[in-house]
Amino acid sequence: MIAATEYSDRSPSIVQQPAGRTSKTMIDDNPMQLLREDLRDFAGYSSARSEKRAGRVWLNANEAAWPSVADGEGAVRRYPDPQPQRLREALAELYGCAPEQLLAGRGSDEAIDLLVRAFCRPGGDAIVITPPTFGMYAVNARLHGTRTVEVALRDTPAGFVCDFAAVAQAAESEGAKLVFLCSPGNPSGTLLPLAEIDALAERLRGRALVVVDEAYIEYADGESATTLLARRRNIAVLRTLSKAHALAAARIGSVIADAGLIAVLQRCQAPYPLPTPCVQLALRALAEVPRNTTKARVTTARSEREKLFEALRVLPGLRQVYPSQANFLLARFDDAQAAFDGLLDAGVVVRDFRAAPRLGDALRISLGTPEQNAAVIEVLTRLARVRGVAA
């Protein structure tokens, strides 16, 4: 952990600022100005493992003297490193940032929680979200006593569209500290234009942090918003190993942002967020050969997405299937209950979104193996044929 005496709300980013900018602009651009004032000198908890000490006999953490009977190698007797350097470096290489710009944690969910906790005073601040979107933004805001301001995505024949001007206006008028953008969106599948994200961050400079959740970016055609960090200190990017890297149960996610901001978030984090077995799994997955396999599987998933899209869009009884840059498709049905039940009867479980506002006829179908995707097409085709005969 970084001691409170090392903190300065003018701590420089690891990214060099563009030449020609004034000192006032640099201060306004500093995300630390947006933090809760009562946390700016917060030192956090200093755990035994965060104290870097050399030694052969470790008796400083009240750990068990002998390995667990369930752990013959003794790999989990010791508390883990709060931020294992090897993992941090591997993730930084994967995401194209410096290790100091990255904090690893328990999936993207923990990063969302840390951001709301660090920036929003309970009862006094707000976040902006763009529904339909990932539900945990609003959940974390509610748990922290923070208002949620909604700027709905526009539903168009070409897919859901973000009204960036309305998002900026809402953030300004409501005094929001955080703006959460999901790109590609969940459940919309929409990839947001980087130029629009860049312009939004510029407009909200000194007012709000723009958080871009890229849980599905590996499946998309565009670049990551991490490419904007060199000139926008008020952007934070969320990434995860849960989706493309197939480590959902390991719960390894990252927030990538200004190095000073990352240091503050680490002080707000629980003492031991990364279990040793999960770290070891992640390091094995990020080695060169497994990463090549992951890339090949993502390529297959993208191809399967297009096949499933083309098959669904011509089915009778299917009102609309939205273009997607993620590993799922969102579809509207004339009879979503019949489609849901028919798939379930065939052993296929999809996500029912009918309880979500403006999605009362929608199901979200995650991409599976080619055989599983073919089964979805077969079931829905058969259901459409039966409906046609009944009509």
From TrEMBL:
It comes from Lysobacter capsici AZ78. The modification N6-(pyridoxal phosphate)lysine is found at residue 243. Pathway: Amino-acid biosynthesis; L-histidine biosynthesis; L-histidine from 5-phospho-alpha-D-ribose 1-diphosphate: step 7/9. The keyword Cell inner membrane does not apply. Keywords: Amino-acid biosynthesis, Aminotransferase, Histidine biosynthesis, Pyridoxal phosphate, Transferase. GO terms for molecular function: histidinol-phosphate transaminase activity; pyridoxal phosphate binding. InterPro entries: Aminotransferase_I/II_large, HisP_aminotrans, PyrdxlP-dep_Trfase, PyrdxlP-dep_Trfase_major, PyrdxlP-dep_Trfase_small. The gene is hisC. Pfam families: Aminotran_1_2. Its cofactor is pyridoxal 5'-phosphate. Belongs to the class-II pyridoxal-phosphate-dependent aminotransferase family. Histidinol-phosphate aminotransferase subfamily. Signal peptide: none annotated. It comes from the Bacteria. It catalyses: L-histidinol phosphate + 2-oxoglutarate = 3-(imidazol-4-yl)-2-oxopropyl phosphate + L-glutamate. One of its GO terms (biological process) is L-histidine biosynthetic process. This is Histidinol-phosphate aminotransferase. The keyword Amino-acid biosynthesis applies. Residues 10-25 have a biased composition (Polar residues). Residues 1-25 are annotated as: Disordered.
